[in-house]
Amino acid sequence: MIPSAAVPPPGDLLLQAVEGMDRPLFVLDEDWRFAYINPAGARVLDRTVHGLLGRHVWDEFPEALGSPFEQLYREVRDTGTTAGTEAWFGPLGKWFRADAFLTDAGLVVTYDDVTERRRIEEERAAAVRSRELAANEAARAAADAERAGRHLMLLGDINLAMTSTLDVDEAVDRVAHLVVPLLADWCLVSVVDPDGTRRDVGRAHGDPAQAEAMHRYADARVATNLAGAPVPTALRSSRPVIIPQLTDAHIEAMVAVPAAREALRPLRPAAVATFPLVARGETFGAITLVNGPGRGAHTADELRTAEIASRRAALALDNARLALANQQVAERLQLSLLSPPVQPDTLELAVRYRPATRGVSIGGDWYDAFLQPDGDTVLVIGDVMGHDIEAAAAMGQVKTLVRGIAFDRLEDPAGVLRRVDHALVGLAVPAMATALVCRIEQGEQERSAGLRRLRWSTAGHPEPMLLLADGTVRDLAAVVGPPLGIGWLGPRSDGVAELPEGSTLLLFTDGLFERRGVLLDEGRDRLRAAVGDAAGLPLDRLCDRVLGEMLGDGVEDDVAVLAVRAHPVHADRPAEAGPEILPPVVPHPA
To answer: What DSSP letter does each residue of 400-412 carry, written as one string?
Structure first.
Protein backbone atom coordinates (compact mmCIF):
# COMPACT_ATOMS: atom_id res chain seq x y z
CA MET A 1 0.00 0.00 0.00
CA ILE A 2 1.23 3.54 -0.80
CA PRO A 3 1.58 5.57 2.46
CA SER A 4 -1.27 8.02 2.82
CA ALA A 5 1.16 10.92 3.37
CA ALA A 6 2.55 10.37 -0.13
CA VAL A 7 -0.88 10.47 -1.76
CA PRO A 8 -2.28 13.91 -2.66
CA PRO A 9 -5.94 14.75 -1.99
CA PRO A 10 -8.45 13.24 -4.43
CA GLY A 11 -8.92 16.50 -6.29
CA ASP A 12 -5.21 16.93 -6.78
CA LEU A 13 -4.87 13.33 -7.89
CA LEU A 14 -7.48 13.83 -10.60
CA LEU A 15 -5.86 17.06 -11.72
CA GLN A 16 -2.52 15.32 -12.00
CA ALA A 17 -3.92 12.31 -13.88
CA VAL A 18 -2.36 11.98 -17.30
CA GLU A 19 -5.28 11.82 -19.67
CA GLY A 20 -3.18 10.43 -22.50
CA MET A 21 -1.44 7.65 -20.53
CA ASP A 22 -1.35 4.37 -22.41
CA ARG A 23 -2.33 2.07 -19.53
CA PRO A 24 -6.05 2.01 -18.60
CA LEU A 25 -6.89 3.24 -15.11
CA PHE A 26 -9.96 3.96 -12.95
CA VAL A 27 -10.62 5.01 -9.35
CA LEU A 28 -13.55 3.66 -7.24
CA ASP A 29 -14.82 5.69 -4.27
CA GLU A 30 -16.06 4.21 -0.97
CA ASP A 31 -19.50 3.54 -2.51
CA TRP A 32 -17.97 1.57 -5.38
CA ARG A 33 -18.68 4.33 -7.84
CA PHE A 34 -16.35 5.47 -10.62
CA ALA A 35 -14.62 8.61 -9.31
CA TYR A 36 -12.24 8.75 -12.26
CA ILE A 37 -11.45 6.82 -15.43
CA ASN A 38 -8.98 7.80 -18.14
CA PRO A 39 -9.84 7.65 -21.85
CA ALA A 40 -7.66 4.55 -22.39
CA GLY A 41 -9.55 2.77 -19.61
CA ALA A 42 -12.94 3.67 -21.04
CA ARG A 43 -11.93 2.40 -24.48
CA VAL A 44 -10.77 -0.98 -23.17
CA LEU A 45 -14.11 -1.37 -21.34
CA ASP A 46 -15.99 -0.43 -24.54
CA ARG A 47 -17.49 2.59 -22.76
CA THR A 48 -17.00 6.34 -22.59
CA VAL A 49 -15.57 8.39 -19.75
CA HIS A 50 -18.79 10.38 -19.27
CA GLY A 51 -20.84 7.18 -19.42
CA LEU A 52 -19.03 5.71 -16.41
CA LEU A 53 -18.20 8.62 -14.10
CA GLY A 54 -20.40 8.48 -11.00
CA ARG A 55 -21.85 5.09 -11.91
CA HIS A 56 -21.82 2.05 -9.58
CA VAL A 57 -19.31 -0.52 -10.76
CA TRP A 58 -21.53 -3.48 -9.85
CA ASP A 59 -24.50 -1.90 -11.64
CA GLU A 60 -22.50 -1.27 -14.80
CA PHE A 61 -20.72 -4.63 -14.69
CA PRO A 62 -22.93 -7.02 -12.69
CA GLU A 63 -21.11 -9.99 -14.18
CA ALA A 64 -18.04 -8.98 -12.15
CA LEU A 65 -19.84 -9.90 -8.90
CA GLY A 66 -18.31 -13.06 -7.54
CA SER A 67 -15.46 -12.86 -10.05
CA PRO A 68 -11.73 -12.68 -9.26
CA PHE A 69 -11.99 -8.93 -9.88
CA GLU A 70 -14.52 -8.40 -7.05
CA GLN A 71 -12.38 -10.55 -4.79
CA LEU A 72 -9.32 -8.43 -5.65
CA TYR A 73 -11.06 -5.11 -5.05
CA ARG A 74 -12.56 -6.16 -1.69
CA GLU A 75 -9.31 -7.76 -0.51
CA VAL A 76 -7.30 -4.62 -1.27
CA ARG A 77 -9.94 -2.38 0.36
CA ASP A 78 -10.13 -4.59 3.48
CA THR A 79 -6.39 -5.20 3.95
CA GLY A 80 -4.80 -2.12 2.40
CA THR A 81 -2.30 -4.31 0.55
CA THR A 82 -1.40 -4.04 -3.13
CA ALA A 83 -2.47 -7.02 -5.21
CA GLY A 84 -3.31 -8.10 -8.72
CA THR A 85 -5.14 -10.73 -10.67
CA GLU A 86 -5.64 -11.96 -14.19
CA ALA A 87 -8.99 -13.38 -15.32
CA TRP A 88 -11.43 -13.73 -18.18
CA PHE A 89 -14.34 -11.28 -18.35
CA GLY A 90 -17.05 -12.88 -20.43
CA PRO A 91 -19.32 -9.91 -21.26
CA LEU A 92 -16.43 -8.13 -23.00
CA GLY A 93 -14.81 -11.30 -24.29
CA LYS A 94 -11.40 -10.25 -22.94
CA TRP A 95 -8.70 -11.37 -20.57
CA PHE A 96 -7.69 -8.60 -18.15
CA ARG A 97 -4.68 -8.14 -15.95
CA ALA A 98 -5.78 -5.90 -13.04
CA ASP A 99 -3.60 -4.37 -10.31
CA ALA A 100 -5.16 -2.48 -7.40
CA PHE A 101 -3.92 -0.37 -4.52
CA LEU A 102 -5.62 1.84 -1.96
CA THR A 103 -5.11 5.62 -1.71
CA ASP A 104 -6.92 8.47 0.04
CA ALA A 105 -8.54 9.18 -3.31
CA GLY A 106 -10.08 5.73 -3.45
CA LEU A 107 -9.32 2.31 -4.86
CA VAL A 108 -7.00 2.74 -7.87
CA VAL A 109 -7.19 0.00 -10.47
CA THR A 110 -4.86 -0.25 -13.47
CA TYR A 111 -5.57 -2.92 -16.02
CA ASP A 112 -4.52 -4.20 -19.41
CA ASP A 113 -6.24 -6.19 -22.11
CA VAL A 114 -4.00 -9.27 -22.22
CA THR A 115 -6.29 -11.33 -24.43
CA GLU A 116 -3.76 -11.63 -27.20
CA ARG A 117 -0.99 -12.59 -24.81
CA ARG A 118 -3.14 -15.24 -23.16
CA ARG A 119 -4.12 -16.59 -26.53
CA ILE A 120 -0.46 -16.87 -27.54
CA GLU A 121 0.43 -18.48 -24.23
CA GLU A 122 -2.40 -21.01 -24.54
CA GLU A 123 -1.38 -21.85 -28.08
CA ARG A 124 2.23 -22.29 -27.04
CA ALA A 125 1.21 -24.42 -24.09
CA ALA A 126 -0.78 -26.70 -26.40
CA ALA A 127 2.34 -28.04 -28.04
CA VAL A 128 5.94 -27.70 -26.96
CA ARG A 129 7.14 -28.02 -30.49
CA SER A 130 4.81 -25.26 -31.68
CA ARG A 131 6.03 -23.07 -28.87
CA GLU A 132 9.65 -23.70 -29.80
CA LEU A 133 8.98 -23.04 -33.47
CA ALA A 134 7.15 -19.82 -32.62
CA ALA A 135 9.99 -18.71 -30.36
CA ASN A 136 12.57 -19.44 -33.03
CA GLU A 137 10.54 -17.57 -35.60
CA ALA A 138 10.17 -14.64 -33.27
CA ALA A 139 13.92 -14.63 -32.67
CA ARG A 140 14.62 -14.66 -36.37
CA ALA A 141 12.10 -11.91 -36.93
CA ALA A 142 13.66 -9.86 -34.15
CA ALA A 143 17.12 -10.34 -35.62
CA ASP A 144 15.85 -9.32 -39.05
CA ALA A 145 14.08 -6.32 -37.58
CA GLU A 146 17.20 -5.31 -35.66
CA ARG A 147 19.34 -5.66 -38.75
CA ALA A 148 16.82 -3.73 -40.85
CA GLY A 149 16.68 -1.08 -38.16
CA ARG A 150 20.45 -0.71 -38.11
CA HIS A 151 20.50 -0.45 -41.90
CA LEU A 152 17.78 2.18 -41.77
CA MET A 153 19.68 4.11 -39.10
CA LEU A 154 22.79 3.92 -41.29
CA LEU A 155 20.95 5.62 -44.14
CA GLY A 156 19.79 8.35 -41.79
CA ASP A 157 23.30 8.75 -40.36
CA ILE A 158 24.70 9.10 -43.88
CA ASN A 159 22.19 11.83 -44.67
CA LEU A 160 23.09 13.68 -41.47
CA ALA A 161 26.84 13.24 -41.88
CA MET A 162 26.82 14.32 -45.50
CA THR A 163 24.62 17.37 -45.07
CA SER A 164 26.40 18.77 -42.01
CA THR A 165 29.55 19.76 -43.91
CA LEU A 166 30.40 21.38 -47.21
CA ASP A 167 33.88 19.82 -47.20
CA VAL A 168 33.63 17.04 -49.80
CA ASP A 169 36.66 15.11 -48.51
CA GLU A 170 35.39 15.20 -44.93
CA ALA A 171 31.93 14.05 -46.02
CA VAL A 172 33.38 11.15 -48.03
CA ASP A 173 35.52 10.00 -45.11
CA ARG A 174 32.45 10.04 -42.88
CA VAL A 175 30.66 7.68 -45.27
CA ALA A 176 33.53 5.17 -45.15
CA HIS A 177 33.52 5.11 -41.35
CA LEU A 178 29.73 4.79 -41.19
CA VAL A 179 29.43 1.70 -43.41
CA VAL A 180 32.18 -0.20 -41.56
CA PRO A 181 31.61 -2.72 -40.01
CA LEU A 182 27.85 -2.81 -40.65
CA LEU A 183 28.11 -3.46 -44.40
CA ALA A 184 31.74 -4.57 -44.83
CA ASP A 185 35.02 -5.32 -43.09
CA TRP A 186 36.65 -2.33 -44.77
CA CYS A 187 35.76 0.39 -47.23
CA LEU A 188 37.38 2.78 -49.67
CA VAL A 189 35.50 5.72 -51.19
CA SER A 190 36.84 7.29 -54.38
CA VAL A 191 36.00 10.71 -55.77
CA VAL A 192 36.72 12.10 -59.21
CA ASP A 193 37.68 15.78 -59.14
CA PRO A 194 36.50 18.21 -61.86
CA ASP A 195 39.86 17.83 -63.63
CA GLY A 196 39.33 14.04 -63.88
CA THR A 197 41.75 13.10 -61.10
CA ARG A 198 40.58 10.15 -59.02
CA ARG A 199 41.38 10.07 -55.31
CA ASP A 200 40.71 7.46 -52.61
CA VAL A 201 39.57 9.90 -49.94
CA GLY A 202 37.34 7.84 -47.62
CA ARG A 203 39.12 4.96 -45.85
CA ALA A 204 37.95 2.83 -42.92
CA HIS A 205 38.80 -0.63 -41.58
CA GLY A 206 36.95 -2.47 -38.83
CA ASP A 207 40.24 -3.88 -37.47
CA PRO A 208 42.58 -1.08 -36.29
CA ALA A 209 45.54 -3.42 -36.70
CA GLN A 210 44.84 -3.59 -40.44
CA ALA A 211 44.40 0.17 -40.94
CA GLU A 212 48.03 0.77 -41.90
CA ALA A 213 47.94 -2.02 -44.51
CA MET A 214 44.70 -0.58 -45.92
CA HIS A 215 46.31 2.86 -46.27
CA ARG A 216 49.33 1.41 -48.05
CA TYR A 217 47.11 -0.31 -50.57
CA ALA A 218 44.82 2.72 -50.97
CA ASP A 219 47.84 4.95 -51.65
CA ALA A 220 48.85 2.64 -54.51
CA ARG A 221 45.41 1.70 -55.81
CA VAL A 222 44.60 4.69 -58.03
CA ALA A 223 47.87 4.47 -59.96
CA THR A 224 47.82 0.68 -60.32
CA ASN A 225 44.18 -0.15 -61.06
CA LEU A 226 43.66 -1.74 -64.44
CA ALA A 227 40.68 -0.85 -66.63
CA GLY A 228 38.88 -4.03 -65.57
CA ALA A 229 39.13 -3.30 -61.85
CA PRO A 230 35.82 -2.72 -60.03
CA VAL A 231 36.18 1.05 -59.55
CA PRO A 232 37.16 1.94 -63.17
CA THR A 233 34.42 -0.40 -64.40
CA ALA A 234 31.78 1.16 -62.13
CA LEU A 235 32.87 4.67 -63.14
CA ARG A 236 32.56 3.83 -66.84
CA SER A 237 29.27 1.96 -66.67
CA SER A 238 27.65 3.76 -63.73
CA ARG A 239 26.56 0.31 -62.53
CA PRO A 240 27.53 -1.73 -59.45
CA VAL A 241 30.28 -4.36 -59.70
CA ILE A 242 29.76 -7.33 -57.36
CA ILE A 243 32.38 -10.08 -56.90
CA PRO A 244 31.08 -12.57 -54.28
CA GLN A 245 34.24 -14.72 -54.35
CA LEU A 246 37.43 -12.85 -55.11
CA THR A 247 40.14 -15.06 -56.61
CA ASP A 248 43.80 -14.55 -57.49
CA ALA A 249 42.70 -14.20 -61.12
CA HIS A 250 40.45 -11.33 -60.17
CA ILE A 251 43.28 -9.59 -58.31
CA GLU A 252 45.67 -9.99 -61.26
CA ALA A 253 42.99 -8.47 -63.51
CA MET A 254 42.51 -5.59 -61.08
CA VAL A 255 46.04 -4.59 -60.06
CA ALA A 256 48.81 -4.14 -62.59
CA VAL A 257 51.87 -3.69 -60.36
CA PRO A 258 53.16 -6.63 -58.27
CA ALA A 259 54.07 -4.28 -55.42
CA ALA A 260 50.45 -3.13 -55.21
CA ARG A 261 49.26 -6.76 -55.19
CA GLU A 262 51.66 -7.42 -52.31
CA ALA A 263 50.20 -4.43 -50.48
CA LEU A 264 46.73 -5.92 -50.91
CA ARG A 265 47.66 -9.46 -49.81
CA PRO A 266 47.73 -8.84 -45.97
CA LEU A 267 44.19 -7.49 -46.19
CA ARG A 268 42.99 -10.92 -47.47
CA PRO A 269 40.06 -9.64 -49.56
CA ALA A 270 37.47 -12.35 -50.19
CA ALA A 271 34.49 -10.42 -51.58
CA VAL A 272 34.15 -7.00 -53.21
CA ALA A 273 31.14 -4.83 -53.97
CA THR A 274 31.62 -1.48 -55.72
CA PHE A 275 28.80 1.04 -56.15
CA PRO A 276 29.16 4.15 -58.33
CA LEU A 277 28.27 7.57 -56.91
CA VAL A 278 25.77 8.88 -59.44
CA ALA A 279 23.68 12.04 -59.05
CA ARG A 280 21.85 14.14 -61.65
CA GLY A 281 23.23 11.94 -64.43
CA GLU A 282 26.88 12.41 -63.44
CA THR A 283 29.20 9.77 -62.00
CA PHE A 284 31.79 11.32 -59.76
CA GLY A 285 33.00 8.58 -57.45
CA ALA A 286 32.54 5.05 -56.12
CA ILE A 287 32.17 3.19 -52.83
CA THR A 288 34.09 -0.10 -52.53
CA LEU A 289 33.04 -2.55 -49.79
CA VAL A 290 35.45 -5.39 -49.03
CA ASN A 291 34.99 -8.47 -46.81
CA GLY A 292 37.63 -10.87 -45.55
CA PRO A 293 37.33 -14.67 -45.62
CA GLY A 294 35.70 -14.78 -42.20
CA ARG A 295 32.72 -12.76 -43.33
CA GLY A 296 32.50 -13.95 -46.91
CA ALA A 297 30.17 -12.64 -49.59
CA HIS A 298 27.93 -9.67 -48.93
CA THR A 299 24.33 -10.56 -48.14
CA ALA A 300 21.42 -9.41 -50.25
CA ASP A 301 20.34 -7.04 -47.48
CA GLU A 302 23.83 -5.53 -47.28
CA LEU A 303 24.00 -5.03 -51.02
CA ARG A 304 20.54 -3.48 -51.12
CA THR A 305 21.38 -1.09 -48.29
CA ALA A 306 24.76 -0.27 -49.87
CA GLU A 307 23.10 0.63 -53.16
CA ILE A 308 20.61 2.96 -51.43
CA ALA A 309 23.44 4.43 -49.35
CA SER A 310 25.51 5.10 -52.46
CA ARG A 311 22.62 6.97 -54.09
CA ARG A 312 22.00 9.08 -51.00
CA ALA A 313 25.68 9.77 -50.50
CA ALA A 314 26.03 10.74 -54.15
CA LEU A 315 23.17 13.21 -53.98
CA ALA A 316 24.48 14.71 -50.75
CA LEU A 317 27.98 14.99 -52.20
CA ASP A 318 26.67 16.62 -55.33
CA ASN A 319 24.68 19.08 -53.22
CA ALA A 320 27.84 19.86 -51.26
CA ARG A 321 29.76 20.42 -54.50
CA LEU A 322 27.02 22.70 -55.82
CA ALA A 323 26.89 24.59 -52.52
CA LEU A 324 30.66 25.01 -52.60
CA ALA A 325 30.47 26.27 -56.18
CA ASN A 326 27.72 28.74 -55.20
CA GLN A 327 29.81 29.88 -52.27
CA GLN A 328 32.80 30.47 -54.53
CA VAL A 329 30.60 32.43 -56.95
CA ALA A 330 29.28 34.45 -54.03
CA GLU A 331 32.78 35.17 -52.77
CA ARG A 332 33.89 36.30 -56.24
CA LEU A 333 30.81 38.51 -56.47
CA GLN A 334 31.57 39.92 -53.03
CA LEU A 335 35.14 40.72 -54.04
CA SER A 336 33.91 42.49 -57.17
CA LEU A 337 31.47 44.58 -55.11
CA LEU A 338 33.90 45.39 -52.29
CA SER A 339 36.80 46.95 -54.14
CA PRO A 340 40.08 47.95 -52.43
CA PRO A 341 40.05 51.53 -51.12
CA VAL A 342 42.20 54.38 -52.37
CA GLN A 343 45.26 55.38 -50.34
CA PRO A 344 45.49 59.19 -50.64
CA ASP A 345 48.73 60.97 -49.61
CA THR A 346 49.06 60.79 -45.81
CA LEU A 347 45.73 59.10 -45.20
CA GLU A 348 45.94 55.34 -44.66
CA LEU A 349 42.82 53.29 -45.26
CA ALA A 350 42.09 49.69 -44.19
CA VAL A 351 38.94 47.66 -44.84
CA ARG A 352 37.56 44.38 -43.53
CA TYR A 353 34.54 42.29 -44.44
CA ARG A 354 33.42 39.25 -42.44
CA PRO A 355 30.42 37.26 -43.75
CA ALA A 356 27.96 35.61 -41.40
CA THR A 357 29.06 32.15 -40.26
CA ARG A 358 25.91 30.45 -41.56
CA GLY A 359 24.42 30.62 -45.04
CA VAL A 360 25.87 32.12 -48.20
CA SER A 361 29.08 34.07 -47.58
CA ILE A 362 27.66 37.27 -48.94
CA GLY A 363 25.24 39.93 -47.80
CA GLY A 364 24.20 43.53 -47.90
CA ASP A 365 27.03 45.21 -45.94
CA TRP A 366 29.47 47.32 -47.93
CA TYR A 367 32.19 49.94 -47.72
CA ASP A 368 33.62 52.34 -50.25
CA ALA A 369 36.33 54.99 -50.44
CA PHE A 370 37.17 57.25 -53.37
CA LEU A 371 38.41 60.73 -54.22
CA GLN A 372 36.19 63.49 -55.48
CA PRO A 373 37.49 65.63 -58.34
CA ASP A 374 38.35 68.41 -55.87
CA GLY A 375 40.69 66.03 -54.01
CA ASP A 376 38.54 65.37 -50.94
CA THR A 377 38.27 61.76 -49.77
CA VAL A 378 34.79 60.29 -49.52
CA LEU A 379 34.15 57.34 -47.20
CA VAL A 380 30.96 55.27 -47.32
CA ILE A 381 29.70 52.40 -45.22
CA GLY A 382 26.24 50.90 -45.41
CA ASP A 383 23.99 47.93 -44.87
CA VAL A 384 21.22 46.81 -47.21
CA MET A 385 18.54 44.91 -45.33
CA GLY A 386 18.79 41.16 -45.92
CA HIS A 387 21.48 38.49 -46.05
CA ASP A 388 21.51 36.70 -49.38
CA ILE A 389 22.36 37.09 -53.04
CA GLU A 390 19.43 39.47 -53.55
CA ALA A 391 20.70 41.71 -50.76
CA ALA A 392 24.15 41.71 -52.36
CA ALA A 393 22.70 42.61 -55.75
CA ALA A 394 20.69 45.46 -54.21
CA MET A 395 23.81 46.55 -52.33
CA GLY A 396 25.68 46.82 -55.64
CA GLN A 397 23.02 49.18 -56.98
CA VAL A 398 22.98 51.33 -53.85
CA LYS A 399 26.77 51.49 -53.72
CA THR A 400 26.94 52.55 -57.37
CA LEU A 401 24.36 55.29 -56.85
CA VAL A 402 26.20 56.69 -53.81
CA ARG A 403 29.53 56.64 -55.60
CA GLY A 404 28.19 58.20 -58.80
CA ILE A 405 26.19 60.96 -57.11
CA ALA A 406 28.96 61.79 -54.61
CA PHE A 407 31.56 62.01 -57.36
CA ASP A 408 29.46 64.10 -59.71
CA ARG A 409 27.67 66.54 -57.44
CA LEU A 410 30.45 67.54 -55.01
CA GLU A 411 27.77 68.05 -52.40
CA ASP A 412 28.02 67.67 -48.65
CA PRO A 413 27.25 64.18 -47.28
CA ALA A 414 23.69 65.11 -46.30
CA GLY A 415 22.99 66.26 -49.86
CA VAL A 416 24.44 63.03 -51.27
CA LEU A 417 22.19 60.91 -49.05
CA ARG A 418 19.15 63.00 -49.99
CA ARG A 419 19.78 62.51 -53.71
CA VAL A 420 20.51 58.78 -53.32
CA ASP A 421 17.27 58.30 -51.37
CA HIS A 422 15.21 59.99 -54.07
CA ALA A 423 17.05 58.08 -56.82
CA LEU A 424 16.32 54.74 -55.17
CA VAL A 425 12.61 55.53 -55.05
CA GLY A 426 12.50 57.08 -58.51
CA LEU A 427 14.35 54.18 -60.11
CA ALA A 428 12.24 51.63 -58.19
CA VAL A 429 15.30 49.92 -56.73
CA PRO A 430 13.83 47.30 -54.35
CA ALA A 431 16.13 48.06 -51.45
CA MET A 432 16.15 49.73 -48.07
CA ALA A 433 19.52 50.51 -46.53
CA THR A 434 21.28 52.38 -43.80
CA ALA A 435 24.33 54.35 -44.86
CA LEU A 436 26.96 56.71 -43.51
CA VAL A 437 28.75 59.09 -45.89
CA CYS A 438 31.88 60.93 -44.70
CA ARG A 439 34.05 63.47 -46.47
CA ILE A 440 37.55 64.32 -45.30
CA GLU A 441 38.04 67.94 -46.35
CA GLN A 442 41.29 69.86 -46.58
CA GLY A 443 41.65 73.16 -48.35
CA GLU A 444 44.98 74.84 -49.08
CA GLN A 445 44.94 76.85 -45.85
CA GLU A 446 44.02 73.78 -43.80
CA ARG A 447 46.74 71.74 -45.43
CA SER A 448 49.28 74.44 -44.70
CA ALA A 449 48.18 74.35 -41.07
CA GLY A 450 48.29 70.51 -40.96
CA LEU A 451 44.54 70.26 -40.35
CA ARG A 452 41.76 68.04 -41.68
CA ARG A 453 38.04 68.39 -41.25
CA LEU A 454 35.58 65.49 -41.16
CA ARG A 455 32.03 66.06 -42.38
CA TRP A 456 29.50 63.23 -42.24
CA SER A 457 25.82 62.39 -42.41
CA THR A 458 24.03 59.21 -41.44
CA ALA A 459 20.87 57.61 -42.80
CA GLY A 460 19.93 55.32 -39.94
CA HIS A 461 23.49 53.97 -39.64
CA PRO A 462 25.56 53.54 -36.44
CA GLU A 463 27.68 56.56 -35.57
CA PRO A 464 31.42 56.37 -36.26
CA MET A 465 34.15 56.35 -33.60
CA LEU A 466 37.29 58.45 -33.46
CA LEU A 467 40.40 57.09 -31.72
CA LEU A 468 42.76 59.92 -30.76
CA ALA A 469 46.52 59.53 -30.58
CA ASP A 470 46.41 59.50 -26.75
CA GLY A 471 44.03 56.49 -26.72
CA THR A 472 40.83 58.45 -26.09
CA VAL A 473 37.82 57.08 -28.00
CA ARG A 474 35.01 59.45 -28.98
CA ASP A 475 31.60 58.73 -30.49
CA LEU A 476 30.98 61.16 -33.35
CA ALA A 477 27.34 62.06 -32.84
CA ALA A 478 25.17 63.87 -35.36
CA VAL A 479 21.47 63.99 -36.19
CA VAL A 480 20.50 60.57 -37.56
CA GLY A 481 18.24 60.67 -40.60
CA PRO A 482 15.89 57.92 -41.86
CA PRO A 483 17.23 54.97 -43.90
CA LEU A 484 17.58 55.17 -47.66
CA GLY A 485 14.87 53.87 -49.94
CA ILE A 486 11.80 55.53 -48.38
CA GLY A 487 11.86 58.81 -50.29
CA TRP A 488 12.31 61.02 -47.21
CA LEU A 489 11.37 64.63 -48.00
CA GLY A 490 12.54 66.11 -44.71
CA PRO A 491 15.95 67.59 -43.97
CA ARG A 492 19.15 65.64 -43.49
CA SER A 493 21.99 67.05 -41.41
CA ASP A 494 25.77 66.95 -41.41
CA GLY A 495 28.07 66.54 -38.45
CA VAL A 496 31.46 68.27 -38.46
CA ALA A 497 34.54 67.42 -36.41
CA GLU A 498 38.29 67.91 -36.57
CA LEU A 499 40.37 64.90 -37.64
CA PRO A 500 43.65 65.41 -35.75
CA GLU A 501 46.97 64.02 -36.85
CA GLY A 502 47.59 60.55 -35.46
CA SER A 503 43.87 59.88 -34.97
CA THR A 504 41.97 56.90 -36.40
CA LEU A 505 38.44 57.09 -37.76
CA LEU A 506 36.43 53.86 -37.55
CA LEU A 507 33.28 53.24 -39.62
CA PHE A 508 31.42 49.95 -39.17
CA THR A 509 28.12 48.16 -39.67
CA ASP A 510 25.92 47.09 -36.78
CA GLY A 511 27.02 43.45 -36.93
CA LEU A 512 30.26 44.49 -35.21
CA PHE A 513 28.60 45.28 -31.89
CA GLU A 514 24.94 44.17 -31.97
CA ARG A 515 24.19 40.82 -30.30
CA ARG A 516 20.96 39.06 -29.46
CA GLY A 517 20.09 39.62 -25.81
CA VAL A 518 22.64 42.45 -25.39
CA LEU A 519 21.64 46.10 -25.11
CA LEU A 520 22.96 48.31 -27.92
CA ASP A 521 24.68 50.64 -25.47
CA GLU A 522 26.47 47.70 -23.88
CA GLY A 523 27.62 46.54 -27.30
CA ARG A 524 28.99 49.97 -28.18
CA ASP A 525 30.68 50.24 -24.78
CA ARG A 526 32.43 46.94 -25.46
CA LEU A 527 33.46 48.13 -28.94
CA ARG A 528 34.72 51.41 -27.53
CA ALA A 529 36.88 49.53 -25.03
CA ALA A 530 38.25 47.23 -27.74
CA VAL A 531 39.18 50.21 -29.93
CA GLY A 532 40.89 51.92 -27.00
CA ASP A 533 42.86 48.76 -26.17
CA ALA A 534 44.15 48.68 -29.77
CA ALA A 535 45.50 52.25 -29.63
CA GLY A 536 49.06 52.49 -30.87
CA LEU A 537 48.81 49.47 -33.18
CA PRO A 538 49.36 49.77 -36.94
CA LEU A 539 46.06 50.21 -38.74
CA ASP A 540 45.81 46.68 -40.16
CA ARG A 541 46.60 45.12 -36.80
CA LEU A 542 44.11 47.45 -35.12
CA CYS A 543 41.35 46.23 -37.44
CA ASP A 544 42.23 42.59 -36.87
CA ARG A 545 42.47 43.10 -33.12
CA VAL A 546 39.06 44.76 -32.89
CA LEU A 547 37.40 42.12 -35.09
CA GLY A 548 38.95 39.33 -33.04
CA GLU A 549 37.79 40.86 -29.75
CA MET A 550 34.26 41.60 -30.94
CA LEU A 551 33.53 38.59 -33.13
CA GLY A 552 35.75 35.69 -32.12
CA ASP A 553 35.18 32.66 -34.36
CA GLY A 554 31.45 33.17 -34.93
CA VAL A 555 29.72 35.96 -36.84
CA GLU A 556 25.95 36.32 -36.36
CA ASP A 557 25.62 38.96 -39.09
CA ASP A 558 27.69 40.41 -41.92
CA VAL A 559 30.29 42.90 -40.71
CA ALA A 560 32.01 45.63 -42.72
CA VAL A 561 34.69 47.92 -41.27
CA LEU A 562 36.43 50.94 -42.82
CA ALA A 563 39.26 52.51 -40.83
CA VAL A 564 41.22 55.68 -41.66
CA ARG A 565 44.50 56.68 -40.00
CA ALA A 566 45.35 60.40 -40.29
CA HIS A 567 49.15 60.52 -40.53
CA PRO A 568 50.93 63.90 -40.22
CA VAL A 569 50.25 66.13 -43.20
CA HIS A 570 53.78 67.56 -43.49
CA ALA A 571 55.62 64.25 -43.32
CA ASP A 572 56.26 61.43 -45.73
CA ARG A 573 53.74 58.63 -45.90
CA PRO A 574 54.91 56.03 -43.34
CA ALA A 575 56.16 52.70 -44.62
CA GLU A 576 53.55 50.70 -42.73
CA ALA A 577 50.81 52.57 -44.62
CA GLY A 578 51.98 51.09 -47.90
CA PRO A 579 52.22 52.95 -51.20
CA GLU A 580 49.93 55.81 -52.11
CA ILE A 581 47.17 54.58 -54.44
CA LEU A 582 45.11 57.16 -56.33
CA PRO A 583 42.61 56.78 -59.18
CA PRO A 584 43.31 58.33 -62.59
CA VAL A 585 42.73 62.06 -62.68
CA VAL A 586 39.43 62.83 -64.38
CA PRO A 587 38.59 66.48 -65.14
CA HIS A 588 35.34 67.57 -63.55
CA PRO A 589 33.03 69.64 -65.77
CA ALA A 590 32.73 73.23 -64.71
So the answer is: HHHHHHHHHH---
